[in-house]
Amino acid sequence: MKLRLAAIAAGLAFIVMSAGGASAAAVCGEGTGQAATGEPIVIGAITGKTGPDDFSNSTRAAKAYFDCLNANGGIHGRPVQYMVEDDQWNPEIAAQLAAKLVDDQKAVLMVGNSSFVECGANADFYKKSGITVVAGVGVPRECFFASAIAPTNAGPRVSMLGAMGYALDQLGAKSVVCIGPNIPNVGSWSCDGVMLLAKEKGFPASTILIDQGSADSTSVMLQAASSNPDVIVLGMSKGSAVPLLVAAEEQGLNEKIKFVSAASAYDLSVPETIGPGWDGRFYVNMEFNDLEATTPDNQNWLAVMDEYGQKSDPRDTFAQAGYLAARIAEKALMSIDPANITRETAGKAVADIKAFESDIFCAPWYFGADQPRHNANSTTRMAVSEGGKWKVVSDCAPSPDPELADIRAFEKSAGITQ
Amino acid sequence: MNFLPFIISGLGIGAVYALSGVGLLVLFRATGVLNFAFGAIGAVGAHVAWQLMEWDYPLALAILAAVLVSTLVSFLYGRFLAPLLSYRDTVVRAVGTLALALFLIALMGVVWGELPRRLQFPTDQMYLTLFGVRLTFTRIIALVLAIVVVGGITVLLGTTRLGLDMRALANDRDLSAILGVRITRTETAAWIITGIFAGLGGLLLADLVRLQGTFLTFLVIPAIAAAILGQLRSLWVTAFAGLGIGVAEALLTPIDWISPYRSATPFVIALIAVMILGSTAQAALKDR
Amino acid sequence: MTAQNQTLARPMASPSAIRVPREVLVIPVVMAVFTAAVALLANSFWLTAATSAVALSLSVTGLAILYGQLGLVSLCQFALVGVGGWVTLRIGHAWHPPFEVSMLSGGIVAALVGLIFGIPALRLRGLYLALVTLMLAGGFQTIIGAWGFPDGGPGFLGRADGAGRAMLSRPDLAQDSVPYFVYVSIVATIGLVISQWHKLARPGRAWALIRKGEHVAIASGVNVLTYKAWAFALSGFLAGIAGALLAGNVGQLDGRAFTAFESLNLFALAVVGGVYNWYGALIAGLLLRAVPALLTDLGIDGYVTIGIFGVALFQALATAPAGIAGQISGLIARLTRKGQKP
């Protein structure tokens, strides 16, 4: 699908209207430049910071945006009180923190959530509490099959199938091996998608699920290579993907087999870490726009991070996700009466969003009111590792995930065009 | 199913287990303390080496710095902190090293974070090809280091005065003191030796596995299986057991139904060994 | 150990007396006060933290029996908590019996597994035993990581595929947070009382003899095998119940939270809390869940928390052999005996 110029134009117009200027200054809220002083609106977030990986860049970016918003008039004069908690990758703690934010702090929305464990731990609690979650980054299946949670990212399965689609169309793949983590609802979920697609299209595919705690990457690579696939698709986080790629390079597999990966391995540090042996050989799926894109909203994201974030906050896709989640929340909250912002009104406002446009997204985001699950971001791009950086190599394309059938049907019936 | 390539890849992971297992046991033979922090101490050194290489210092300096830092950490703990626990039972003294490991994890997490990094040595590019599998020189160096250290420590413990003092210390601290063994000096020497080994081992492990603080620290847990097979006594058996466990784990890869569980191989082998070897195990272990 | 001698050296009431020993009575009283204080004062966040802490204190009690009474180190106790949790969830989702039934099944299966784990231990001691149990914990870590915990799906593993994930329902009496906390406290109190009774009655004396030396015990007519096995079974049972209570707290458990390191951590904090007094288990539970919650609440970075724990662990090991509970009991002894030699 071609890049939607209308989306860019709309985004541009939105920004021009609210900024009144096209400089590199950060633009948020009403752009008044006056600090908001009304009664704070409490918004909560849970992120997995301490543990196998650090997902907190999403909430950091959201915080930067909310700080910018508060410095520019807030939500019709009311500032956002953004409370972020670290669940330390422990579902028990995630549940404690959800209780804290929802029951004790009386949050009206959860925005920018980015935790591996909290969707599963808290989805039911959020539903019962009637609170809506505009998550930044969702990973396990529970984040994409919960009625109260709508992530801004595409998800590991959709992303992996986006990569798979590219491999089929552009890399001439005729056989594939899928390597995923043996975490239920992540690895098997993603690789099942590949197997399903392979069955539909009629090419051989096999799956290898591995323990991310395993120290032996070489054996996995040998096993994957033993069936002589054209493409190996990875669904691992960057911490596990890098050792696998290192082991593959050690065995010379980078020269024989094409490697593609879901967006979980898309991080700015990866090309430099894996080195020149992978130039032009490792493709990764991107759930959002290129981090250095010069398009207006992307530039605004960078400007917000520069002016209101910390210098040390990584400007990565998690940050893009958090920024988008914060902007979606802002749009929803701006549309309601500031004197009547409650969990119900805020949730309804978010649910009513049918076309949130940003050039960071490939296609407009929507919530999907009354739907049992939310997965609006299902259009992705691809990049390749080149000279220590990522180089974008494709336009936006919808992910060929067969499981998206219900989503596509809803989009059609609701008149949402992607 | 072709198993031959997996024997070679098994030697690769086996080298990792052998290094860590011997690292755990070396200190145990010399002081009676099982060193849970072996991986952590090595990891700190590896991070220092990585940082220096990022700043474009030469490789030799980075390696030297890594070993120095690891040795320093080990010396500080062994000289000043470990003696505080010397009158507790062996498990509590091992838990003390666990406290050190936690502290080092925190240090690495705060300074370097959990971003995956790659530690590369020139020996990664050189390799032997056996059964279609490349065995890099780094892996061979790891194997050789494990063997050399085992040989060296065995010679040290068996023929030198210091070694004799160490064995006495490990056996019974109070009796050794009465007999005139200089406890502090012997212990400190043991911790320094283990620190040097941890530094070298840490560099190799960071290259072979991944440079990530928590991961390298908890690599000692499967390595304990090798130590158990050596019955906490024999360094040679530990080293070869480590290799064997690695090969066994790798050989399970092509077997589909068991492959997702194969990282449990060290644990299963250790338990089977315990069942077979039974209670003859800890004859040399005096429990205080 | 002075603290240990205190618990053993008190003269037992004669067998015909129906008076319950003071050491046992004090448990429900103290727990009642503690429960009331938390239930009335804590907000949601602290309530869930306290619920976890009390549940885990049960598993520490099991550890304390093995280590404090018999000198046997078990580094797989958290794995047994996981076993209990797994069975509770599986049975709960499959047949929806009353929570108590699922909980007891979890406890019983964990007791059986604890017994099986105990088989290699029957002839091992000290560090070697500890490492063997750590291997068991490692094996469990791999299996539970691959299986995950049951959440309402079909088959033996009981995994649902994303949609239709069920949460374990809490006991009928205690659906909300505060009642559930009180429920957990009551169950924990019962467990603590059972454990304390064991220490004061015949099993405790048998264990003390076994600890002194197995030959001594055999010569005194103690059936070493039975009592050791009983200790493992009881320890496993308490861990299983703890797992069931944790499962009920959140409604689910995550396979990645049951690593071998958690068992190591549990043992370390059990030693810090104190294994010779019943309240050492409660202190350990609070250290495991409440103190990290406090540090998180204060906004301290996760890694710094780990560092603080490492330092505190070492400090506690070096300066308080009987743990924090030992120091408290020493203080109480000094205050109550007023000048008499301990």
Distance between the termini of chain B: 51 Å
What would CATH call the class of chain B? Mainly Alpha
What class, by secondary structure content of chain C?
Answer: mainly alpha
Question: Looking at the chains present, what oligomeric state does this protein adopt?
Answer: heterotrimer
Q: Strand count, sense and closure of the main sheet of chain C?
A: none
Could you tell me the radius of gyration of chain B in angstroms?
19 Å
Q: Into which percent range does the helicity of residues of chain B fall?
A: over 70%
Count of DSSP H/I helices of chain C:
14
SSE string of chain C: HHHHHHHHHHHHHH
Number of self-contained structural domains of chain C: 1
Unreliable spans of chain C: 5-10
Helix content of chain C: over 70%
Report, as a whole number of angstroms, the end-to-end distance of chain C. Answer: 12 Å
Radius of gyration of chain C: 20 Å
* Low-pLDDT segments, ≥5 res of chain B: 281-288
Biggest sheet statistics of chain B: 2 strands, antiparallel
Which two chains form the greatest contact, residue counts included?
Answer: B-C, 51 and 43 residues
Q: Approximately how much beta-strand content do the residues of chain C carry? A: under 5%
Topology:
The complex is a heterotrimer of chains A (418), B (288) and C (342).
Chain A: H1 5-19, E1 41-47, H2 57-70, E2 80-86, H3 91-104, E3 109-111, H4 118-129, E4 132-134, H5 156-170, E5 176-181, H6 187-201, E6 205-210, H7 217-226, E7 231-234, H8 238-250, E8 258-261, H9 269-274, E9 282-286, H10 296-308, H11 317-334, H12 343-351, E10 379-386, E11 389-392, E12 397-398, H13 405-413
Parallel strand pairs in A: 1-2, 1-3, 3-4, 5-6, 5-7, 7-8, 8-9
Antiparallel strand pairs in A: 9-10, 10-11, 10-12
Helix pairs in contact in A: 2-10, 2-11, 3-4, 5-6, 7-8, 11-12
Chain B: H1 4-31, H2 38-54, H3 59-81, H4 90-112, E1 127-130, E2 133-136, H5 137-159, H6 161-171, H7 173-178, H8 183-208, H9 213-218, H10 220-229, H11 235-251, H12 265-277
Antiparallel strand pairs in B: 1-2
Helix pairs in contact in B: 1-5, 1-6, 1-8, 1-10, 1-11, 2-3, 2-4, 2-8, 3-8, 5-6, 5-8, 6-8, 10-11, 10-12
Chain C: H1 2-9, H2 22-41, H3 44-70, H4 77-95, H5 99-121, H6 126-147, H7 177-200, H8 202-212, H9 214-219, H10 224-250, H11 260-273, H12 278-297, H13 302-319, H14 323-337
Helix pairs in contact in C: 2-7, 3-7, 3-10, 3-11, 3-12, 4-5, 4-6, 4-10, 5-10, 6-11, 7-8, 7-10, 8-10, 11-12, 11-14, 12-14
